[in-house]
Structures
1.
Amino acid sequence: MIKTLASTATALAVALTGAQAFAAGVTKELKHPEWAWEGPLGSYDQKQLQRGFQVYREVCANCHSLQLIAFRHLGEKGGPFYLESCPAELGLPEGTNCSDPVANPIIKSLAAEYTVTDGPDEYGDMFERPATPADYIPGPYANKEMATFANGGAYPPDQSLLVKARPNGANYMYSLLTGYPSEPLNTINEPDGGYYNPYYPGDTVGLMKEEYIHDGHIDKKKVKEAEDAKYVSKEGYIYGGAFKMAQPLYDEMVIYEDGTPMTMDQYAKDVTAFLMWAAEPKLDERKGMGKFVMAYLFIFAGVTYASYRQIWANAKY
Amino acid sequence: MSHQSTYNPSTGVEKWIDERMPIVRLGYDSFVDFPTPKNLNYWYTFGGILAVVLMVQIVTGVILAMHYTAHVDYAFQSVEHIMRDVNYGWLMRYAHANGASMFFIAVYLHIARGLYYGSYKAPREILWMIGVVIFLLMMGTAFMGYVLPWGQMSFWGATVITSLASAVPIIGDPIKTLLWGGFSVDNPTLNRFFALHYLMPFLIAGAVILHIWALHVPGNNNPSGIEVKDVKKDALPFHPYYTVKDGFAIIVFLLLFAAFVFFMPNSLGHPDNYIPADPLATPAHIVPEWYFLPFYAMLRAIDFPVLFIDAKLGGVIVMLGSILIWLVLPWLDRSQVRSMRYRPIAKWFFWVMVAAFCFLGWLGAAPAEGWYVLASKICTLYYFAYFLVVLPVLSVRETPLPLPTSISEAVLQDKGKKKAESEPATQPAGGPIPAPAE
């Protein structure tokens, strides 16, 4: 039966990956860096989550909200600023439990750097106050319409679940962030307010420059000759599409204090890790428990199988 | 099989209860001293597995309902609240979502087992038909459950599937409006789906009790398809022989279940369902959950009108008919031989039907264009031909292999075959999996 189940699972996996091959347009095959959380034993790298939060805060947060994350979440177990015990140098009063996100001094001071609107007070007025760990991270815009208007008519999606809301999300995010061409492509025109990316699931047929179109068809041979091979599919189409987000990350734009290389590539990895955490904050807890559950069930199965053999040995014919 | 009760209340309390409501006797006769054919293989463990999965779904579901908000503005957020702030909420939700998939894996294997060993034939027709009803209830429950998180696939899946009702002539549109509780998929739809999603598992549980009742009258079918003739020689008490065997299978199944819940909880879901429902943005591909794909492919295979039936209604008829046809299967397959083991021709048609069904599952995820549609049509045609033509014709045309005279003999025959294959190694009692238990 194990075999049957295994083959069922394989068949499912095949069906699912097969299904993804039908996605519209042609996008470049995603890059796949090594992620700390991958595999059954993987878990988040806390330092990386901290750097990722920094990149989010200094770059992404200018346009993207993170509505599902409260400051206290950042201090929960598995989160970027979780503390097992209070750092001695802070001299906090005895009995302070820093593993409690609401008492975590990093979270408290981080929250205090933000201002939130509260109220109404007893006079019926709304008022501003420094955020507390219980508050949700305020977004850059008051509402969706304002966000859309400020970004050329495209709403910058909330990032809380983004990694889980895209197929192969972490690799997609990383590939997209690092995939912008350094110079404009020869064969396509970027639309007004749009930016080309080979990993974006869009369409490039409408963007082709006129000289590459013959009788309503793309001159694939000419495209292949004129364009950097990394943007051209085997069939002669330009990968990806254009969308409203300009390249957000550049080398040295965020200052890392811990000596980690300040490259675009590193920023992209770190912020992807942070967004993965934001989408799946209980991953460490889940995999940790999973190991015990599997081991327990495995031993239980062994014992039960032994009992089965023992009991059935008595069956007479 | 129904048998003389052997329960003997040994304590005063048991006697007192037995005279008033013999519930302990019922349990004892049904699950302890129930005579069960001694040759049931692992394909017969899925009934027990399904009972466990149903319990898991009900328990996790009730807990989720304590934290869920059935409102279009809050449903998506309440699910994320469960994932992030409720203690072990992520475990409950992932177990519930993957539990649905596990439920369908097990039920498909359970149905295939019934089809292969002829478990639908007399005297088990009612048992089989209750099973079909349970499957239909399961599909409804799963569909409505998938709508509750109110993600993009929830919303658009609900829109597509409920719109199928409008294919019915004259009363189609009123039915659709009734399903929606308005003129589009909206808050009333979500509310009634939640109410029904909570109700239907209990209907399933009730139907399962009837299913077990109908099983315990004729007793289990078995891989040889021969009835128990001599309880002493052909059968074993359910406990401990089958409690331990089912128990082992259940634990192995839970290993698979846990592997999904703890290590790949989103692999069977669709990423779009992590985007909140937006009635103004249609996803590029609206795909149902994997377990509906074969039926979805049959629905889409009908892209042509037949007489006064347009393509849409035709698709709906074919999709529903593909399951409802099981209700009359006991009267389509008239062969006296139950088990495909002794049906050399039907066996091959059976496996081709299984392959066609799986292929339809794959086609259901493919876009409805080009050769995919043609392949869907061929597979759908074969699927129906298997039930409507192949089985009825083979009922009279096929010459079955000689049947063993009893279950006991069938087991000994198998044992002899195994022994001949594995000489000179001696087989320990019990035999290797997946040999029939000996």
2.
Amino acid sequence: MSRESVRPAARRAPRRAMLASDVPQRRWLGVLGIGTFIALWYAASLYIADPSTLATPLAVLERFVSMTHEPFAGSTLQEHLAASMARFGAGFGLSVLIGIPLGLAMGWFQYLDALVKPAFNVLRFIAPIAWVPFAVLWFGTGYGGPVLIIFAGAFPACVIGAYGGARLADKRLLEAARMLGAKSLRILLSVILPSAVPSIVSALRVAAGNAWQSLVGAELIVASSGIAYIMVRGQMNRTIVIVLTGMLAIGLVGLLLDWLFGRFERFVQRRLGAAAV
Amino acid sequence: MKPASPLRLRMLGVGSAVAWLVLWWLATDVTHWVDTALFPDPSAFLESLQQIAFGNYAGGDLLKHVATSSWLVFRGFLLAVAIGLTLGLLIALSAFWRDFLAPVFNFLRPVPPLAWIPLALLWFGLGDNSKLFVMALAASIPLVINTTTGVTQIDRTLLAAARVNGARGWNWLWHVILPGAMPHIAIGLRLALQTSWTVIVAAELLGAIWGVGRVLTAAKDDVYPGMIVVGMATVAVLGIASSLLLDWVESRLMRWRTR
């Protein structure tokens, strides 16, 4: 008998991969990809050598570090970041405080749902950034204006998440609660709210992402401080390194926010999963 | 509480739309709860609408502004679809390109779409090209993600059956992969359209000659509440209209699903 026949079948006839997901990930290719990207960026910025068009990755990093102790546009990077986070917190917090109770109530009271839905559906289609003129007119450019725009960005996701969660409530539980004589408000708090929690928590993550995105737009157009305002100044001075530094900072904070809300989501799911068993 | 009948709820919906309009009129013209310097009454809104529809505001009439923005969104959206689908399919089908490109993609993804605008302004100036660049970049991201998800969620048995029956190359892509991933691609298209509108409004607020964002900027600078509402209503109507158009295109593309 030849040696051929003892070779494992898998090696004789390798399964042809149909999709990329059939092949395990090769990390070295990813490192190569990022490396190529940065090398191309580096080469392009050295070749172009125009401070209004491109800056080297190293220059961006250096600027990022130096801006943490040298003020730009009146403040250091941390101070701009703090201004942005204060706006983010106010806009996002308001949208959670108003949007989630409204969504839950709409999910439970059909008449309220029918009453509010037409207005909500129209408002939902207005891009948050289109609130800029009213934000300026009503609240000015400093703090209140951007907060309205952030609120407009995060609000729909909060309402939709709470609404969807409330509609998911177990019909049998609702009937049991009603049969045992619970009033509407009691049902809303003790039956609907708990069953809506997972959906609300997922919605918070989406809402936070939308709020961050709206904050960037708001600060580009109406603010005079904040992390995205840095980029406006960089663009007006035609220094791309400032713009790229701003993008780096915005990307990092966005990642951090998404990571935090993702962790929170998993934490809640785990706790609820444990409670359900 | 008894479940209300669908007809009753529908009537209530229409009634509530009317009620909101009456409330608007009551709050501004009758009770003067709302200062008309901050929010227009219905007649001021209609006057502004008339002015821009039949006359001229911010350098053109309403049709000119709507046409400028819509044409930009249309081109930007098509660019995004071309880039997003190509990149998404590449990442979903080829392990090499997935491993090579996905980390770069994930490196750029956390930067929100609007944060690209200052960069685009420096690279392309205030014209159409900077807006197209940001739309193509920002709106293609949800398409890449959803195309990739869509392809990986196709039924494996179906894929294997198609392979055994000799589906290869173009056939494989056009008759197996794309239709299979279509439900998810549809979600990506919707998000891409929404992103395109957000980007165009923001970009036009930062600088444009015509367009709905230009109307909003002019109304803001003139402190003209009636025109602000006209601009916002235009943004909403355009968003709704383009999303209905997308629904129609999708229903034609996905006819096989209902058969």
